[in-house]
Design brief:
Blueprint: E1 6-9, E2 12-15, E3 18-21, E4 36-43, E5 47-53, E6 58-64, E7 66-72, E8 84-90, E9 97-101, E10 106-111, E11 116-123, E12 132-134
Antiparallel strand pairs: 1-9, 2-3, 4-11, 5-10, 5-12, 6-9, 6-11, 7-8, 7-10
């Protein structure tokens, strides 16, 4: 895995009434701090990215739908410099997990489920557009091409 990125399996409790989905607790060993929680939607096949935060750590879970998360490590001093990894997050039992993305990594997401997939993010700092960087989804310096069919 890319240095600092961690995928934490999450629990769901499902019965005939519906389900309860865990995400993050303040006594989890990987909890750092509370900055803000927000929800973001991504439509089927659409790409949001590339983004990089200089200070903020993200904690992504997908309680509705499914997404592809791609992370690229261009940190010069990183033991995983140049590595690119792809993760699938979603509401299904095998895909329901918390993905922790530390600062200084490029990441993007693509919707994989019909309709709009919902991403829940509990970050350790409140959003500040001045501490983040953006690139277009087809940026030449990121060695990844997003699939057109979202398969």
């Amino acid at each position: 895995m890319i240095d600092g990125v961690v995928r934490h399996p999450l629990r769901q409790f499902v019965d005939e009434r519906g389900r309860t989905m865990h995400m993050l607790r303040n006594d989890d060993p990987h909890f750092r701090a509370f900055g803000e929680i927000y929800f973001s939607g991504v439509a089927y096949g659409k790409v949001k990215g590339w983004y990089r935060h200089r200070e903020k750590t993200l904690n992504y879970a997908v309680p509705s739908g499914a997404i592809r998360v791609v992370i690229y490590d261009d940190r010069a001093d990183s033991p995983t410099h140049g590595r690119l990894e792809e993760y699938r997050l979603g509401e299904g039992e095998a895909d329901y997990a918390l993905l922790t993305i530390p600062p200084l990594l490029w990441y993007g997401v693509q919707g994989l489920a019909r309709g709009v997939s919902i991403i829940a993010n509990c970050s350790d700092l409140p959003n500040d557009p001045a501490e983040s960087d953006r690139k277009p989804a087809d940026a030449a310096d990121v060695p990844y091409r997003w699939p057109a069919d979202a398969a």
